[in-house]
């Protein structure tokens, strides 16, 4: 189905919150880039937070999401430029594969800082703006946030943390902010490029198009008032890490 037609179907029951001003972490590549494209196509304003430059002409802040203060400042600058923020999609993610004793401590801790603490920092900084418009937050966990796997202690720790953080956030902000936990399975992105061969998907791996997952994010963002999509699992037909 063409993207425009998919987006019309996705938005049939609602619209993006407020003016659609949406912060997207990790929006320069992979799922984040697909979400930025989808938000723009739906008439919203994607605001990308990433170390890399996004494709196209999306508004962006170059920021290391592993640096809490830098992340907070980036959110504030974006809010000032756009006179507020309506939604957050926390899609940034990194990994450090290997057995616990083999992964350098700095690399291990950075995974947690970016994936979990970076998510919390951006959401915390944006929350007053989002709450002011009864906006929405979508966090991106992983199937490895609900199922453990060897040689993935850093990633599992961070994504299990995102699951717990998001569920608690939903309880804390119920009735004031819409909160959705997204649990995606494997996607065809550059996420795996820098891994050792043993940690890359095999040649027969079934992976999903990140734009299809982005449509699910847009569906969550566009729920009408009174309807909450709390958790959403989106995987390829064959997903070895779920359930």
In brief, what are we looking at here?
By secondary structure, this protein is of the alpha/beta class. The protein contains six helices and seven strands.
Q: Could you characterize the architecture of this molecule?
A:
39% of the residues lie in helices and 14% in strands. With 243 residues, the protein is of the alpha/beta class. It is built from 6 helices and 7 strands, in the order αβαββαβαβαβαβ. The two termini are 28 Å apart.
Rg calculated over all Cα atoms = 17 Å
Could you say how many structural domains there are in total? 1
The helix/strand series, from N terminus to C terminus, equals: HEHEEHEHEHEHE
CATH class: Alpha Beta
CATH superfamily membership, which one? NAD(P)-binding Rossmann-like Domain
Strand order of the largest sheet: 3-2-1-4-5-6-7
Helix content: 25-40%
Note poorly predicted spans: none
The portion of residues forming beta strands comes to: 5-15%
Q: What would CATH call the architecture? A: 3-Layer(aba) Sandwich
N- to C-terminal distance: 28 Å
Mean pLDDT over the residues: 92
Q: What structural class do you assign from the helix and strand content?
A: alpha/beta
Which secondary structure elements does this structure contain, and how are they paired or packed?
Blueprint: H1 3-10, E1 21-25, H2 30-41, E2 45-50, E3 59-62, H3 68-82, E4 87-90, H4 105-132, E5 136-140, H5 153-172, E6 178-184, H6 210-221, E7 231-234
Helix pairs in contact: 1-6, 2-6, 3-4, 4-5
Task: Fill in the keyword field for this structure.
243 residues, alpha/beta, Rossmann fold
């Amino acid at each position: 189905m063409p993207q425009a037609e998919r987006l019309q179907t996705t938005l049939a029951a609602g619209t993006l919150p407020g003016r659609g001003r949406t912060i997207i972490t990790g929006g320069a590549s992979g799922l984040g880039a697909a979400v930025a494209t989808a938000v723009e196509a739906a008439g919203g304003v994607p605001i990308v937070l990433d170390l890399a430059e996004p494709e196209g002409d999306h508004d962006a802040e170059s920021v290391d999401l592993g640096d809490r203060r830098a992340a907070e400042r980036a959110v504030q600058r974006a809010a000032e430029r756009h006179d507020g923020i309506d939604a957050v999609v926390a899609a940034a993610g990194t990994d450090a594969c290997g057995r616990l004793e083999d992964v350098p401590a700095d690399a291990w801790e950075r995974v947690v800082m970016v994936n979990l603490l970076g998510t919390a920092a951006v959401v915390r900084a944006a929350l007053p703006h989002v709450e002011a418009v009864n906006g929405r937050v979508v966090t991106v966990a992983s199937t490895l946030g609900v199922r453990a796997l060897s040689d993935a202690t850093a990633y599992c720790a961070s994504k299990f943390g995102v699951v717990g953080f998001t569920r608690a956030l939903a309880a804390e902000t119920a009735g004031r902010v819409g909160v959705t936990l997204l649990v995606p399975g494997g996607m065809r992105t550059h996420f795996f490029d820098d891994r050792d061969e043993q940690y890359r998907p095999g040649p027969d791996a079934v992976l999903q198009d990140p734009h299809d997952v982005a449509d699910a994010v847009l569906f969550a963002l566009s729920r009408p008032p009174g309807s909450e999509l709390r958790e959403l699992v989106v995987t390829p037909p064959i997903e070895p890490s779920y359930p």
